[in-house]
Amino acid sequence: MPLWYNEEQTEGVSFGIKIKEQILSEESQFQTIDIYDTYEFGKLFTLDGLVMLTEKDEFIYHDMIVHVPMAVNTEIKNVLVIGGGDGGTVRELTRYNSIEKIDMVEIDEMVVRASQKHLPFTASKLTDPRVNLFFEDGIVFVKNAQNSMYDLIIVDSTDPIGPGEGLFTKEFYDQCFRILTSEGILINQHESPFYPQFSKEMKRAHNKIKNIFPISMVYQAHIPTYPSGHWLFGFSSKKFHPLEDLKSPRWEMLKLKTKYYNSDLHLGSFALPTYVKEMLEEEE
Amino acid sequence: MPLWYNEEQTEGVSFGIKIKEQILSEESQFQTIDIYDTYEFGKLFTLDGLVMLTEKDEFIYHDMIVHVPMAVNTEIKNVLVIGGGDGGTVRELTRYNSIEKIDMVEIDEMVVRASQKHLPFTASKLTDPRVNLFFEDGIVFVKNAQNSMYDLIIVDSTDPIGPGEGLFTKEFYDQCFRILTSEGILINQHESPFYPQFSKEMKRAHNKIKNIFPISMVYQAHIPTYPSGHWLFGFSSKKFHPLEDLKSPRWEMLKLKTKYYNSDLHLGSFALPTYVKEMLEEEE
């Protein structure tokens, strides 16, 4: 009998991936970690039965969560990553020589260890000398961090259920604002606009952030293995506008080869469908 | 036992929708037609077991296949639709008072009759007095049509397997070119770039078209119920460039309410991911 991974992406909608074998299944203090080898997607990594990444399409998520802010401010030096235990976000960040320090705060050390063992394509740069790993709660970490420490914070979290929940609160966004420099940018994964289960959270998060940051916009990407395939990211900023301050020529001079991101797509990704724009304008 | 519709979107990848009940299942001369009522997507219409549309997300496909060319040439008068038996493309076209004639050529009359009975949300405008329905092979229809008949041809077809196959050939595109006016535009659904099964067809079709039309570009949309959720359309044209000739102010004066399409998104939809751009530049 062939084995299938099946995820109920939202009530009444399922997504299935045929698997070659299960490579890992373990319970951490926080969640269930599973890794599979699949036919179409290469390695598949799930937390509590939800797709975090696949080897085939992770480049889309990681391109968009990293290169969008980096192309708006090419002089970013100090970065904080919250979550992101698979290492993909750090991998893309380490490609910038201008970055001097990357603090990564992942609540679940077992996720990092599992990724280092089984997902080297994302995790291999976690040993970069600029990277400092902290295995603790991101909410506590930002509360204890000094003012104006970071040029960029990337919240690479799970959905706002379980360990990720506190990363979608006003208190957390307030602390992010405080520990960002006057040129600071906050990027967070922003859920899907399509299914109400996700768009409700997306609207709530966006309403909180836009009351804190002077610039607060949303951009999108095609991520085939996430619910609906239509995924959003939040770009919140104290000074830089994601379109007006885009440094395309300077970014292109870095000659970073990317499979998804490019400067035209950067601009295009902020052009949202009408129903998404209307959703973001609604108050809660 | 709850019933699920399950589609193997590409080998080793399945998409499932929980259904309330099956409304219709019939065999036409050409294909199997099924219509279901579902929990999350409202009505679901499939041909040969592949999703053609759902009530919840059909607005995306129909917005993008119609409003993109109409906003580039707001003076389009004569339109030919090949396929599109569900009526959604015609529905969007009939919103333009400037359009004088819509010839719709659908090979399978049973698709139109089933849609008129069960999918009124897309099919209700097929009775518009400007619409002429032809139940015949689109390939034969274009071969017999006079020169310079149409300002716009929309190929709203199934995949290039089964009845849709001939709509992806050089001969067909040559005929389309011939029967378009000197300002003519050809739009066709262009498959997905993500899974090789589809992207192979997409590249083949694009290579053929770009040797015929002076302007030949590709744009994208998020369509959650199509394989990978990342779907492409071809914009091929004798005169008008889809970006440089976009008539945003004139289109916006029409005050057509759209849920997906808007002028910014029009521009953004042509900004393709790097891997898709590279794919389109490759020769076969």
UniProtKB/TrEMBL annotation, chains A, B:
Binding-site residues, spermidine:
62, 86, 156-159
Q: Where does the source fall among the domains of life?
A: Bacteria
Enzyme Commission number, as recorded:
2.5.1.16
What Gene3D superfamilies does UniProt report for this protein, alphabetically?
Spermidine synthase, tetramerisation domain, Vaccinia Virus protein VP39
Q: Where do the annotations place S-methyl-5'-thioadenosine binding?
A: 31, 106, 137-138, 163
GO BP annotation list: spermidine biosynthetic process
Tell me which residues make up the PABS domain: 2-238
From the UniProt record, give the pathway where this protein acts: Amine and polyamine biosynthesis; spermidine biosynthesis; spermidine from putrescine: step 1/1
| Chain ranges passing through the membrane | none
Q: What is annotated as the active site?
A: 156 (proton acceptor)
Task: Enumerate the SUPFAM superfamilies for this protein.
Answer: S-adenosyl-L-methionine-dependent methyltransferases
Keyword Transferase included in the entry's annotation = yes
GO CC: one term?
cytosol
Mind listing the GO molecular function terms for this protein?
Answer: spermidine synthase activity
Under InterPro entries, the record lists:
PABS (IPR030374), PABS_CS (IPR030373), SAM-dependent_MTases_sf (IPR029063), Spermi_synthase (IPR001045), Spermidine_synt_N (IPR035246), Spermidine_synt_N_sf (IPR037163)
Which reaction is recorded as catalysed by this protein?
S-adenosyl 3-(methylsulfanyl)propylamine + putrescine = S-methyl-5'-thioadenosine + spermidine + H(+)
Show the CDD domains listed in the entry.
Answer: AdoMet_MTases
Q: Which UniProt keywords apply?
A: Polyamine biosynthesis, Spermidine biosynthesis, Transferase
HAMAP family from the entry? Spermidine_synth (MF_00198)
Instruction: Show the PANTHER family listed in the entry.
Output: SPERMIDINE SYNTHASE (PTHR11558:SF11), SPERMIDINE/SPERMINE SYNTHASE (PTHR11558)
Self-association state and partner proteins as the record states:
Homodimer or homotetramer.
Q: Which family does it belong to?
A: Belongs to the spermidine/spermine synthase family.
Q: What does this protein do?
A: Catalyzes the irreversible transfer of a propylamine group from the amino donor S-adenosylmethioninamine (decarboxy-AdoMet) to putrescine (1,4-diaminobutane) to yield spermidine.
Name of the molecule in the record = Polyamine aminopropyltransferase
* Native species: Alkalibaculum sporogenes
Organism ancestry: Bacteria, Bacillati, Bacillota, Clostridia, Eubacteriales
